[in-house]
Amino acid sequence: MSYSPVNTAPSTSLKYNILWPENLDTIKITEKERDLLQAKIEELRDNLLPESETSKPYRLCSRTPNSCPRRLHICHDHYFVVLNNHGKMPMFDSTGAQQKKIKYVWDCKTGRFWLKKSLFSSKQAECILYLKYAPNLSKSFLGIPKLVTDSGSEDVKNKLRYFEEMAMFSLPILLKKRQVKLNFDYILGLMDSLRKIHAVKYTPSAFHSLSIPGQYSSFGAPHPLFHGDISPNNVICENVINKESGKAYSKLMLTDFYAIGDIKNIYWTKGWGSPECIQYAKTHTKYQTMNTSKFMAKYGAKKDTWAMGLIIGSLIRGKMHPKYEQSLPCFSFITDKLKFDPTGKYVIDESGLAGITQEEIDSKINALIEEEPSEPIKELWKTVKKYLTVNPDKRPTLADV
């Protein structure tokens, strides 16, 4: 799903700079509804508690006033108007498919669309808070979109949601329709976003500085945090202009944190699962309903690393596999081991991925390194090869690299 930025005009409000689309039909509201919403936003904004460093993660105020035509979520940084289930706003995911777990949200503070997404548990909500407030790990541009947790709601259900600023494209759309201009800052930023996640341990002490209760011990040993489902549609892209050169580049960001740190289930997008996960699925036919915590605590971050290697390799090559709807990496050591339905659109059996050997991966990537004239990209390929280590016990997390 892609969209064009909406031109916004400041409201007539004298108190706050509240932004609405120039065409209110863009968000399916009338002028009367806008005026009611604007008055309620100002009222709620006036009643917010003072912001402080210790309370900052929890300064979200959520209300559903009877006199208001939309549900509002107001904090110091954002004035969110939830648009779904009102005015027939569609629900969608990053591929454009209908998706009840994702909702449109309009932010009257920035004049942009956001998405409201579901989480599995309160642990995921705490992880989102960490991603928002923890310091960056390097000087590269961190590839995580702006995030806000729904932690201020009195409704338990709404605590398991978060808001994410909407980007223009997903990675498959970018690679399919646009000329990719490689900018190392943004590629490193995407890698650094996962590095930031992997650097977190499931220990209470990691969250003390954020005043977040720590509930991250598993089987008596800390383990790295992990995204859980690195795949092309979970990488989003935003066009940015380099101020010095004036050239346009695509900023890459990791998205969809619904499964972050979930050690009770194993998830992956078909074709992007690591060999040990495929092997585990083959030998545990009911693995989705089993207690997989020990396995995921050990290999969750390693699974992320494998998929990120395939993502970066696809970026360097500037394409996904042309035959399979841009949903698979352009590597024969992946696609040769998959079985497809007659249309070639859907992976129906990926068990062959468990048989990938290090020799065939290294051979393929070494050939690409040999053909590449650019020394920086040669080095990037060497990093990809390190990420695509078949033995998970030898494969690093991104925090290790």
Question: In brief, what are we looking at here?
Answer:
This protein has 401 residues and is of the alpha+beta class. 30% of the residues lie in helices and 15% in strands. The strands form 4 sheets. The chain has a 7-stranded antiparallel β-sheet with strand order 3-4-5-6-7-9-8. Strands 10-11-12 form a 3-stranded antiparallel β-sheet.
Description:
Helix content is 30%, strand content 15%. By secondary structure, it is of the alpha+beta class. The strands form four sheets. The chain has a seven-stranded antiparallel β-sheet. A hairpin with a 6-residue loop joins strand 11 and strand 12 (248-254). Helix 9 runs antiparallel to helix 10 (375-387). It starts with 7 loop residues before the first strand and ends in a 14-residue tail after the last helix.
